[in-house]
Specification:
By secondary structure, this protein is an alpha/beta fold. Helices cover 46% and strands 16% of the residues. It has helices at residues 4-11, 15-20, 35-47, 59-66, 70-82, 100-108, 129-132, 140-146, and strands spanning 25-29, 51-53, 86-91, 113-118, 135-137. It is globular.
């Protein structure tokens, strides 16, 4: 199972080496209510040979959630972003009320190349301002170009 933060340190000595190799690792940012859609996208990327950080596959993050370890949760998310070359932000009407998605984007904005994938119910006019500055993926054609 792909999980970028476990994968790249075994092959590369630093994040810079990792990025120089052109290896694509995607941090998938989403609101919990959209986890089924996010899982489909994560699995699609994995099948395309792209390494993915998807929170549902992070055992450490699950333990931190179960033990109410806020520092551990935050550090797991930051590590996932630090070890990614790209971030795909899944945006649905649910995302507009998320507290973690804006944190992830803010933390990863200068560390990754950020893309926004609009799910049903989202138009360019309903995107938050900070997402309008990202590359927008609107359909399967755009998504396959990304892959």
């Amino acid at each position: 199972m792909a999980l970028n933060r476990y994968y790249w340190p075994t092959k590369f000595t630093s994040r810079l080496d990792f990025l120089k190799q052109g290896v694509k690792c995607v941090f998938l940012s989403h609101q919990k209510k959209d986890k089924e859609e996010a899982k489909k996208i994560a699995d699609y990327l994995i099948k395309a040979g792209i390494d993915v950080y998807f929170d549902e596959y992070d055992k450490d993050l699950k333990i931190h959630h179960q033990t109410n370890n806020a520092v551990g949760v935050t550090n797991s998310i930051k590590m996932g972003i630090n070890n990614s070359s790209h971030m795909i932000v899944l945006v649905s009407p649910n995302t507009l009320y998320s507290t973690w998605v804006p944190f992830e984007i803010g933390y990863g904005y200068d560390k990754t190349e950020v893309f926004t994938l609009c799910l049903k119910g989202i138009t360019k006019g309903t995107l938050p301002e900070y997402l309008k500055a990202t590359k927008i993926i609107r359909d399967i054609y755009d998504f396959n170009i990304f892959c």
